[in-house]
Design goal:
This protein is mostly helical and about 280 residues long. It has 3 domains: about 90 residues, Serine Threonine Protein Phosphatase 5, Tetratricopeptide repeat, CATH 1.25.40; about 45 residues; about 90 residues. About 75% of the residues lie in helices and about 0% in strands. The protein contains 12 helices and no strands. α6 runs antiparallel to α7 and α10 runs parallel beside α12.
Length: about 280
């Protein structure tokens, strides 16, 4: 019991001693000492403490050779602390401030990569995802011979897949909520934005189903036009996927043709602006 108490007291003393040591350096106003300590903390992955000291001493070394490494290391401190927006700002500022540095390419990449790390789950807002794509693409276009271009392209593909999946899920949600016009519009836009999607068959099948249901739930004045649109979408699907399980699509097409031939539509002129 006494041994455990002694060890506890010793540990507490050591913690206080270490904390006091850092505080003494932090408040010392000794630039070289703070820089040496910050670099040691950075090497030991004590990023919060290192960043604290780098923030304090940067102005002291502005215009001196040490300033470049202080700025660069502090940017990485924020990255490792998951302060990705701050890291992006600092890496970007580093690239524009030290534009002749041998580390500029790395800084520009990390500026983009920091925003990549802020990309949210597909269910959430994707503003940061698009921003990351733009920054990574800019890097790839700027450093055509860089070994990092391959990594950029890989990350861009990953992010674009997330955007594609979000649009597909949104189209499905519209369909399930019986907002069939919204489903068709979303799915059409998906195919425009992602023409190489591997989900094209699923997308076009859902477009056929959405088109038919939209016609079914439309006012009389709009039905014929939308049944014929469904037939058009189904024809394209069947021409692109002539084999496989497509009996449902054929049946929907058959129903759409039959309903579009309703004699009540003959001679009727649509003057409605309603859906």
């Amino acid at each position: 019991m006494q041994k455990e108490l002694f060890l506890g007291v010793l540990l507490a003393v050591l913690v206080v001693s270490c904390r006091s040591s850092f505080e003494k350096v932090r408040t010392s106003n000794d630039g070289p000492l703070m820089l040496k300590t910050a670099n040691k903390l950075y090497a030991d992955k004590e990023y919060f403490k290192a960043s604290t000291l780098y923030d304090i001493i940067f102005t002291n070394f502005r215009g001196q050779k040490e300033a470049e490494d202080i700025f660069f290391n502090n940017a990485y401190c924020n990255y490792y602390l998951r302060n990705y927006e701050t890291a992006n700002y600092m890496f970007t500022s580093y690239g524009s401030t030290f534009f002749n540095s041998s580390k500029k390419e790395e800084a520009d990449f990390m500026a983009a990569y920091s925003i990549y790390k802020t990309s949210a789950d597909y269910k959430l807002d994707q503003t940061q995802t698009q921003k990351a794509i733009d920054l990574l693409q800019t890097f790839a276009n700027t450093y055509l011979e860089s070994q990092r271009v391959k990594e950029c392209n890989k990350l861009i593909d990953e992010l674009r897949l997330k955007l594609e999946f979000k649009m597909l899920e949104q189209g499905k949600l519209y369909y399930n909520l019986q907002h069939f016009q919204g489903a068709i519009t979303t799915l059409e836009n998906l195919l425009i934005e992602f023409p190489d999607t591997k989900n094209e068959k699923e997308i076009r099948e859902l477009m056929v189903r959405s088109g038919f249901e939209w016609a079914e739930n439309s006012i009389f004045e709009k039905q014929k036009e939308r049944y014929l649109k469904t037939v058009e979408i189904a024809d394209f699907y069947l021409s692109k996927y002539p084999t496989g399980k497509n009996s449902d699509i054929k049946e929907i097409r058959k129903k759409a043709i039959s309903k579009s031939n309703n004699p009540l539509y003959n001679g009727y002129q649509d003057t409605s602006t309603k859906n």
